[in-house]
């Protein structure tokens, strides 16, 4: 069947005679009969000529309308033209003479509507050639299908004679062609000759060979065989399935099809096999297989199944109606007295909640005690145990009372119920939650209530403190100690605008590396604003030793996250955690590129010892320089790295590990173990290990599967291997073996490997074994020893959740780990010895041991984790009054908990930037480990025990945030009102000049940047500038309850209330800024040096003694004595400096290359386009606003607003000639199908000028320069425009109806934001189309998602310009697709 979408004519569909359609579709008449009478596909429509009173002879035939597959043509609205119109076209154009200049105007318009092309003679000729029309004379001459024996008249005899003559002529022509065609031998010679003249690559394109191939095909010849180069048997062969020819090597397994046909045939076989396997599903009533893909028998079965399913549903519906009628009858017969009794009971329960609670408590405890006794339990129940259940029952009773009295808006919900409802809402979506709420007998919050709670959470990407503020409410203890976890997840590209806040969600330009910014403005040929949609999220988590885990800040990036950026994030996250009492003692992450580089920036350089120095695995805490943060990599990732490294070790491979004796270490010992297990299965014996084929043969899936990595080094695997090796050495019984009961479980497997080495040496020396076998056994024992030490480090220690590390056993565990590391250190020493023996030029020694990165990560993980455990024990002993400590779980050695969170996000389909933002705030991590049940890359058991703290609902957390925000605003207002009038002093930002900080080898462009920077001034002083920072407001909110930093902020406000104090504070800030300026100049000069960056230099500076001394000298009073306060001040001043530096870089580049910053002149809209925008956007806004006043009575005061809106618009039928000529062009009239609201001429000029202001306020350039606030700022500029408002008020006042100010203000405040949102959406959609192209999710992401994707199509909301009756501003989140 020809695909209609590829035909340039009749793209929407075509009419055809039934017989012609049968041949066109490649179906049988019986199939077409089933389509017509039983199960018609959506893209076919059957109709008879008599049904539409078509002219003769068309009224005697059946016709079919065929549209492209996947479309629906059931209905006249879906056809290009009707059957009656088509028959008229056929009658007029079927035998139309194309030499005529044109056809009648009526038929020309009909032809263009049907074919999509103008009715030119060439197009009509083309339509006739493609048989788009059926002329009446052809229809009359076609044989009529009738039953019975055909008439024996002259016409039939003449037709038979004509057919015979035609057949004879065809035969004669064929014989004549064959007679002049060369013989088979001649063709063979010509083919071989031509093949010798051309290259093999030109065989397919050679015209002479193509002609010879055609002759071979007519003669049905076999392949032409000959002897080619190197005495190879070659052949020139034809494909039996297509018209191609090719040069092949002749073999006994010669295939007569070409490669493409082989693949096609294989696919067809696969499809046929799938059809056979899914035969029942294809004909099921709810099957999604198109009807056109079914054969005749399948169509019949499908029809019967559909009829059967319809009958079943009809019976079920009938029974349900019967039940409803019965229930309705029962309700109607209920007495008035009973209704009154129910109402009285509900009212009593609502008015006496305490009495109801006491009675519910008594009954509930009695029932629970009775049930507990019947089950044999001896636990005493208290009222505290039942409080959550009692609260839920009492709240439900009161809510049922309110619902019964039609007071749904007064329902109140407990925190537990709100949290449950929010979880269901986020997981299932609004529609599914509404259905669940409707079906449940319990009263749940409405969707609108949950939406308000969802958007009330003050959460945003980057700098956000709401997650930390919640911990002050949730955490039970005043302080806690634990570790930070960080990992990155890939997101789907998506950007939306939050209409309520005006923020653009899903773009990233925060925490961009300053090195990247400097290179962009100083070195790039065409600098850009580096604004991209977010494609990754870098998530930070905090985990305490008690298992309480919560999500910290998260930072979007576009896939270019650097270690310098992560260092800045690390400093901020540590500061915020410490401010709320979550003490940070450790940092764990995987060993990815950026994470490993972050570790290298934080720690000192390493040593070659197996147990590295402590400074290699720790860094100074930026919050408190007297404490440390220990650094280590995730043990789960390290185990997989060790397994992957072992599997790469093979003779002749990239790696070939050797032990100290030169024996090869590899995976052969595991292959043999797996084969022995397979042999046991063949003998119907239980295997001794849990290894599978995926354990030995790694693919992209099993390579990342932690369960497969564990199987390689688990105890069962090593026990089987050691048992086999003992038997090979002749120790069949326990005699001579090293037994676990004699040695102990700790360190047993490495001891077994050493014991096997000793026994092998004894056996070889005694001559009981051949040397070849001894060499093989030596390699297997060496591999066992490798696996045994990996087993001890990971399986027995770092990933053993049954083992807790505490004061009594940490020394013992450390000694065992050191022994295992010493084994690997011995292999490293042997490698270095071979390196020295080989010399400088030979690098083959690198294959003998682990890669340097893997060896370093292994040591850092072991040393860092045990250093963290020891430091936790020491800190807990020193703070027993505030810290509750029992032991450290090995779960702290891995990052599986954050992987569990990512799996949870993907399962809920929230892995896009806008969805992730809302989901992270309203989801707790208490059961996150369950998300790993279907994730084979990580194990839920490795997550460990998770706790949460107090059971605080989302509503309480939101109210707490609002209270702290109000408290912060009151404090700032109090400062503003109490300071002296002359306390605001204009000051310079720096006390240095550009030459003071300029390095000797700096260029002129860098000098211009520094000069521009040092000339800047602060008109309101440093305090006025700091208060404008979001960072200042956030840290002020966090420090209310902090005894160390709270007084620092109080003294800061107190100092800047006077002129003298403000001057001293400005002097101190300038001293810090001068030092930061030196660092910025140094980094600018060395911007190409990888080891130098502004983030690293400031991180070191804020932890140094020089910084403390600088603050102590230049900051007045106690401000310089608080290290935390000084670091916060330094970070805020660094943030200001970077903002100023970015501006100076831009100005300097604009001065040197002004042509790069010349704004591209946008082509102005034509008058017709401006008019169209007024009618599209202003008209839609008027129409949308009028919906609010649809039900307003004539007597009500709001009727004036309705009259004002009515005066602003008019109907098309009421427009006069002047309006049509001036404001309403032809294009707009074609687009208007009755849904477009026209703006009256009285308000049209105001609408035109307003739309011009709206267009200028929000452009693509604005999004590139300030993506986060561009929507908010553009909207603010338009709303604050005095000219737009004054012009609108004057028009309304001068109107004959003279509207009141109240009505004018009400209409203006509604209609203008709608105009802004609708027009801004067009610009935003254009920018999003350029930057947010859909892309395939990574393979890693697909593996982690364990929920089947929904095949249903989402409803796509249209914009205001496309859908005038739908408001964009009615939604809090405007998503432009």
Describe the structure.
With 1377 residues, the chain is α+β, with helices and mostly antiparallel strands. Helix content is 55%, strand content 7%. The chain has a six-stranded mixed beta sheet with strand order 13-12-7-14-16-15, with helices on both faces. A three-stranded antiparallel beta sheet has the order 1-3-2. It has a three-stranded antiparallel beta sheet with strand order 4-5-6. Helix 23 packs antiparallel against helix 32. The chain is globular, with a radius of gyration of 41 Å. The two termini are 34 Å apart.
The strands making up the biggest β-sheet line up spatially as 13-12-7-14-16-15
Cα(first) to Cα(last) distance is: 34 Å
What structural class should be given to the helix and strand makeup? alpha+beta
How large, in whole angstroms, is the Cα Rg?
41 Å
Mean pLDDT: 80
Task: Give the total of beta strands.
Answer: 23
What are the key terms here?
three-stranded antiparallel beta sheet, disordered C terminus, 1377 residues, 7% strand, globular, six-stranded mixed beta sheet, alpha+beta
Please provide a brief summary of the model:
The protein is of the alpha+beta class.
Give a topology summary.
Layout: E1 14-17, H1 18-25, H2 29-37, E2 44-48, E3 62-66, H3 83-93, H4 105-115, H5 121-129, H6 136-141, H7 154-180, H8 184-197, H9 207-219, E4 224-227, E5 233-238, E6 245-249, H10 259-277, H11 279-282, H12 296-332, H13 336-351, H14 353-374, H15 383-404, H16 415-428, H17 430-439, H18 447-456, H19 466-474, E7 480-490, E8 496-498, E9 504-505, E10 507-508, H20 514-522, E11 532-533, E12 536-544, E13 549-557, H21 563-579, E14 582-589, H22 593-602, E15 618-620, E16 628-633, H23 635-648, E17 657-658, E18 664-665, H24 668-682, H25 693-696, H26 706-713, H27 715-728, H28 740-743, H29 748-765, H30 771-798, H31 810-838, H32 852-878, H33 896-907, H34 913-921, H35 954-978, E19 987-988, H36 994-997, H37 1004-1014, E20 1017-1018, H38 1021-1027, H39 1030-1038, H40 1046-1055, H41 1059-1085, H42 1094-1103, H43 1105-1114, H44 1123-1152, H45 1167-1186, H46 1199-1207, E21 1209-1210, H47 1217-1223, H48 1226-1231, E22 1238-1239, H49 1241-1257, H50 1260-1265, H51 1270-1279, H52 1282-1294, H53 1301-1331, H54 1339-1344, E23 1373-1374
Parallel strand pairs: 7-14, 14-16
Antiparallel strand pairs: 1-3, 2-3, 4-5, 5-6, 7-12, 8-9, 8-23, 10-11, 12-13, 15-16, 17-18, 19-20, 21-22
Helix pairs in contact: 3-4, 8-9, 13-15, 14-15, 16-17, 20-44, 21-22, 21-42, 23-26, 23-32, 27-29, 27-30, 29-30, 30-31, 31-32, 37-44, 41-43, 41-44, 45-49, 45-53, 46-53, 49-52, 51-53, 52-53
